[in-house]
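If it is no trouble, can you show me the amino acids of a protein and the tokens describing how it folds?
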Amino acid sequence: MKQYVSTRGGVAPVGFEEAVLKGFADDGGLFVPTAIPRISPEQLKAWAGLSYPDLAFEILSLFIDRETVPAKDLKQLIEASFQDFEHPEIMPVVPLPGDEGLFVLELFRGPTLSFKDIAMGFLINTMDYILKRRGGHLNLVLATTGDTGPAAAYAAAGKSSIDCWPLYPEGMITDEQERQMTTLSEGNIHAVGVTDCPDGGDDLDLIVAGLFSDAALVRDLGLSSVNSINWCRVLMQSVHYVYGYCRVCRRIGDPLVFSVPSGAFGNLFAGYLAREMGVPITTFICANNRNSALHTAFSTGVFKKRDLVQTVSSAIDIVVPYNFWRFLYFQAGGDPEKLAAWMDRFHKEGEVRLDQETADAIQRGYASCSVSDAQTLSTIRATWEADGYLLDPHGAVAVAAARELRDQLKREAPVLCMATAHPAKFPGVTARALGGKDLPPEACHPALQAAADLPRRGAVHSLEELKPRLIAGMKALKT
């Protein structure tokens, strides 16, 4: 049986079902597999022409026992998770003709126009599948900086086994993102705007972590989470690295660089997982905005929390990238005691200085960059003018970082930049970048225009009153 352990080492190994339903491990750590399976070059060649759902089936089957999810059911879960995507390829690859060797992987063709749809639909469908088999119910609590919440709310809407509580920092996400959560009519979606969040989504992450640190409360309320702390999210996201590699590289074995706009490090950890499985990815570019905790860690070996800076790439305004702990666990040789000590020190002091061996290890195969708002806006404008291609601000961070670091990387390979959201979700940023009020058609989307006329639902609480209000609301649903 395939098993998963906590990065802190304080709980017994669990199976896939428990890892998915729990989200956090009971000791506060994150679930990771006891072993990462390998994909041979022959397998990769055989998979190169597969559709995204078929490729996902092959990769997920390496991590999920047939006794847990039979092959027929797994295929149905995957197909259901991608049925509302608007592009037949799920995620098309687009070359930028003005910059040879630079490509964009469009990850935003799902129902909420964000890359979070790629994994969220499968995760929540899988949760629903397991809960119905068990006769159970969960309250999904998650913090969002703009895209996770809408994806979770859409995927969970109408599911009798799940109530979904997306928490967002009031005034720190776009109106379009907020409407995607607050205009859903299904009664099992409970969007909550939260005021007084100086550190934005990180303040909400602390509330969520506090809820999950109370084992009795977790059991009583049936708490779980679908943030990128959930192993199933990370696992599904690893698939688009394999898919992107096979779409760009003409021969299996050729090198490829990925540039990834990075906030909580969930997407980048999924890339690490794909490379560890055997995908010949030469380098990952960790593309930060001014909230550059990851860039600082990669370039100095110091993992440090700083005050949040609000930027135009708001979905990656993260000062505590929680999935970085998963990465550090593997870079430290899978030593849970070392990882637990680092986590405790970080939570107490706000800083961890890695030992030299680990600091050197995290730099192998990684480059990093901090991109300013001015660079983000100029990249949107320049790419539109040169290529007629409109980037969202997060995709622009990835492209800007790729352009800045390509000479350092000696143009050793093509670069595939991840565009993680549709530009229509950020009309204000697009207008600033293009220098006008009249947006091109590429900056609009009918789904967002339809939501603009719908009534809003949901609550607004202060950060101070959030935890007791959430607990009271969940208890009320039980009566």
The first helix runs from residue 16 to 22.
